[in-house]
């Protein structure tokens, strides 16, 4: 073999693995709407609660069971995320390819505040490696009780008092199928939700029910949709989500309707 052929052969060998493993990436967007008529906005009646004045300093508190935009029926606070195509996949096979820009976990601290007797944001999705900051940005005491999967020690939960202005860092939460419910026992209407993922392909819908996931792997995957008040989209049968094909470039999943659970 002459030198040129050897060099060409070597170049081929070097180039080949890159070709085989070339992963394309796509951006995913879409909207989740509420199935059925948009529920009327409902104000919470705080009755004789001694904190009433502080709780209502920005106006009456709204019931957050279903936050639906009357203009487009967009359902806020809905979690949506990507998973590998096979619902039975375990271990390394259940892991999503991660875009180089997402390898590192950015924005270490994600806060859930309670400035006026409601958790803000009401629903938070975080990635393993991020800390949940339980915050009390108000002038009254709150407590922060969180309850996740009892079989997953890191997420099992805790309950602590947060004096006015205080915050506490919750570290080490791990990705799990079960959500973490957040409550304040001093103000029993307060409710929040946290979900933890081991990848960056998740979103929580905004006031238009819209979501976006950037630089997701192209290929065959599933999307899973879950809401704190109604559970999986499609009920128990929806726990495995639905199949999606992610293409390189832009992907619009269109509108998905979240039927009111029966
Ligand atoms: Cu409270």
Labels describing this entry:
2 helices; mainly beta; 262 residues; five-stranded mixed sheet; five-stranded antiparallel sheet; binds copper (II) ion
Kindly describe this structure.
The structure is a single chain. The protein has 262 residues and is mainly β. The protein has a single domain, classed as Immunoglobulin-like (Sandwich), CATH 2.60.40.420. The protein contains 2 helices and 16 strands. It has helices at residues 3-20, 52-55; strands at residues 25-35, 78-84, 109-112, 123-127, 131-135, 142-147, 157-162, 167-170, 180-183, 191-197, 202-204, 210-217, 219-227, 231-232, 242-246, 249-259. Strands 2, 11, 13, 14 and 15 form a 5-stranded antiparallel β-sheet that branches. Strands 4-10-9-6-7 form a 5-stranded mixed β-sheet, with no helix packed on it. A 3-stranded mixed β-sheet has the order 12-1-16, with no helix packed on it. Strand 13 (219-227) and strand 14 form a beta hairpin. The protein starts with a helix and ends with a strand. Bound molecules: copper (II) ion (CU). Copper (II) ion is lined by residues 114, 117, 142, 184, 186-187, 190.
> How many beta-strand runs?
16
Q: Count of helices?
A: 2
Rg (C-alpha, Å): 22 Å
Instruction: Note the main sheet.
Output: 5 strands, antiparallel
Overall mean pLDDT score?
92
| CATH H-tier superfamily | Cupredoxins -  blue copper proteins
Extract low-pLDDT stretches: none
Counting structural domains, the number is: 1
Shape: globular
Q: What pattern of helices and strands is seen along the backbone? A: HEHEEEEEEEEEEEEEEE
Q: List the ions, cofactors and other small molecules found in this model.
A: copper (II) ion
% residues in beta strands: 35-45%
CATH architecture, please? Sandwich
